[in-house]
Amino acid sequence: RVHIPVCEVRLTANANASFKTMDYRGDFNLDFIPAASLIEVLKQTDVITDPINLKRAWLTGQGRWTGKLLAPPLIEMIHADNVKLSGDAGSVQVQGLDLKPVNHTLAFKRFSVRLEDFSLRYLLEALGRKGYTGVLSDFGHLTGDLQVTSEDDLAFRGELEDVSINFSRQSVRVPQKINLIRGALELKGKRVSGLVKDIQLDGGVLRGQASFNLDRQVLNGVFQVKVDELQFRPEVQQLMVGGSIAPIALYGQGQMSEG
Questions:
Q1: N or C: more exposed end of the chain, with fewer CB within 10 A?
Q2: If residue 13 lies in a helix (H) or strand (E), which one and from where to where?
Q3: What is the pTM of this model?
Q4: What distances in angstroms separate CA 112 from CA 59, 72, 247, one per listed residue?
């Protein structure tokens, strides 16, 4: 039994081996391990090659592993139960994750992830993405369920809260807060598609739906909007027309491109 203190945190591990079959198995417990430290170890072993920066986040959870003594790879399978990433940005909990080391990478089977009040800005910054910082003053927080089949096959259903969009005219900016967005997202290969059916504006009204198909960087692609009733909050209306605007309906298609 081994206890490894790391900056007031603890990793506990147990292992058992059979010298007759050369099999061994063990279990581990993560007790607030800094996520950045684990990412650095995975980078040094080439398990992770893309830049990922997880600041102010800690890992907790349990799991087990199996392997063969004196026969590479020493670890054949890692199973993680209820592993949770938590911190200032919210929480992400992984259920039923099986990892198998293959040629310096980690192969996995389908697993599920639960997000609770997780900051979208934090996620974009961790992946080195900027997003539409000129349009959005607040990217909001995600809550929902993610199904991971492969790194190119993801499906999410849930909601995004507390998004803020900037409207500007003659160097004057007025934010429009979106209290809630409900919908679904799907990544297939190099494309991200989504459908939004419920949008609640702070101080306004929006009844309708929107769909889109974008690249993986969420910077280029097409979208479609069908709105039965739209009315922004009074301050936005005042900025746009110098008064009030009656509720409007609209339908349209468009294209987004970087730059």
A1: C
A2: strand 10-18
A3: 0.73
A4: 17, 29, 41
